[in-house]
């Protein structure tokens, strides 16, 4: 009977412990909606959208009584960024195109205004020197349109893009005509010419003229901020775990179009804030540092700055868990650095198995594709976790909160919770 009572008490305590913090889908939705709202301007560099998002996240940390290192939650740094804050208009033979739906300006493009003739180039024109010289004579003050479907192999497309980037044609602008989706980016530099991607159903070889009104501004020493706070460890406060997620996205393209970035990466920030809420109720054994990185989309800038200016010694940072693309987990998760750090990977797999999460976990090696990378380069053990699903919206204007089903979000959160708990129990 005493044994049964003990088992009941253990079971009760476990249920009570998990019940005091339940992953809250409504709270996740609130975070997504706030970070992806029009007022955040795509968390980019037009109208200081990233700074507004940083203030919001800092407010959330303060509300949970998270501690700060330097009497505030911010780590400041600067970098150059190309922006498009004003006009963004393209017209082909009198027909207006809609930005984000019909075309994208290259993130590194320069400004361009005026009307130009369209000259078409294909693989023969680009790769054959004789044809190139003949073609080049007629290119003054023209715009080159290149149909990517004429480049059959990945190697030829890579070579073509290299030649285009150098713009040996000296054209006013280069247009990449695509049959695929429109995907944008962020760039720290500005080209010496204008460049665009246009959907194939909006331009063809019968198109004669194209009119631009595009304003690009290279902002030098743009001020941005990592958002950093911590919860002190109960048993080993001088050992540190970092849970991170980048909060920046691509911002605005012109005055009216913005990129919400729900999956990339408001979802990762939402999960990081869930860990904040959990550890507030259940203090960790190690000190857990929460970092919302800025500048990820422009080249992992915020995480690089932190690694170069750490707020705690990197040698005492036992592990980094970086969360990115956490909104669509129908097909499981992928662990970048899973093959690099097999001990940690075995713990994660063990917790998945005994936790019966029925989650497909794939491993990858080292990759410079998110903010874990600079930590790995310094020898800090780190995982970058992202979810896999059928979600097709990425770096486009359709990555919105209402598109995210959050399938697998809760199970991923609890799996990572169990992993971090085991990690601390083993004193890894």
Summary of the model, kept short:
The strands form three sheets. An eight-stranded mixed β-sheet has the order 1-10-14-11-15-18-16-17, sandwiched between helices. An eight-stranded mixed β-sheet has the order 3-2-9-5-6-7-8-4.
Determine Rg (CA atoms, Å): 25 Å
- Distance linking N and C termini: 38 Å
Largest β-sheet summary: 8 strands, mixed
CATH class of the largest domain: Alpha Beta
Strand % is 25-35%
CATH T-level fold name of the largest domain: Aminopeptidase
Shape: elongated
Low-confidence stretches: 1-20
Q: Tally of extended strands?
A: 18
Order of helices and strands: HHHEEEEEHHEHEEEEEEEHEHEEHEHEH
CATH superfamily of the largest domain: Zn peptidases
Task: Examine the secondary-structure arrangement and name the CATH architecture of the largest domain.
Answer: 3-Layer(aba) Sandwich
The computed structural class is alpha/beta
How many distinct folded domains?
2
Mean pLDDT: 91
Q: Report helical residue fraction.
A: 25-40%
Strand neighbour order, sheet with most strands: 1-10-14-11-15-18-16-17
């Amino acid at each position: 009977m005493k044994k049964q009572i003990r088992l009941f008490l253990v079971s009760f305590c476990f249920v009570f412990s998990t019940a005091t913090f339940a992953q809250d889908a409504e709270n996740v939705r609130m975070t997504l909606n706030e970070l992806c709202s029009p007022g955040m301007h795509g968390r980019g560099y037009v109208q200081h959208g990233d700074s507004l998002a940083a203030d919001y996240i800092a407010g959330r940390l303060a509300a949970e009584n998270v501690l700060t290192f330097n009497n505030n939650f911010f780590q400041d740094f600067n970098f150059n960024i190309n922006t498009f804050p004003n006009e963004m208009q393209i017209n082909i033979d009198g027909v207006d195109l809609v930005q984000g739906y019909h075309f994208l300006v290259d993130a590194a493009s320069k400004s361009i205004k005026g009307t130009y003739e369209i000259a078409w180039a294909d693989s023969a024109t680009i790769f054959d020197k004789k044809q190139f010289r003949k073609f080049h004579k007629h290119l003054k003050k023209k715009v080159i349109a290149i149909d990517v479907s004429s480049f059959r192999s990945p190697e030829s497309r890579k070579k073509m893009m290299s030649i285009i980037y150098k713009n040996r044609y000296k054209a006013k602008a280069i247009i990449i005509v695509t049959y695929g989706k429109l995907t944008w980016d962020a760039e720290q530099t500005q080209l010496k010419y204008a460049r665009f991607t246009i959907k194939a159903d909006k331009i063809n070889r019968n198109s004669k003229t194209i009119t631009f009104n595009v304003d690009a501004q290279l902002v030098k020493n743009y001020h941005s901020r990592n958002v950093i706070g911590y919860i002190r460890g109960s048993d080993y406060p001088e050992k540190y775990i970092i849970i991170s997620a980048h909060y920046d996205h691509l911002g605005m393209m012109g005055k009216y179009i913005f990129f919400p970035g729900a999956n990339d990466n408001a979802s990762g920030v939402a999960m990081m804030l869930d860990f904040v809420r959990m550890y507030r109720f259940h203090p960790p054994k190690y000190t857990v540092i929460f970092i919302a990185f800025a500048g990820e989309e422009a080249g992992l800038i915020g995480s690089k700055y932190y690694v170069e200016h750490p707020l705690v010694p990197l040698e005492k940072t036992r592990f980094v868990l970086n969360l990115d693309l956490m909104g669509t987990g129908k097909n499981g998760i992928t662990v970048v650095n899973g093959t690099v750090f097999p001990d940690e990977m075995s713990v994660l797999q063990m917790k998945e198995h005994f936790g019966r999460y029925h989650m497909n976990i794939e491993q990858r090696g080292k990759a410079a594709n998110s903010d874990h990378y600079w930590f790995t380069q310094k020898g800090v053990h780190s995982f970058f976790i992202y979810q896999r699903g059928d979600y097709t919206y990425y770096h486009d204007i359709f990555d919105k909160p209402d598109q995210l089903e959050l399938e697998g979000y809760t199970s991923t959160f609890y799996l990572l919770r169990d992993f971090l708990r085991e990690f601390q129990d083993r004193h890894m």
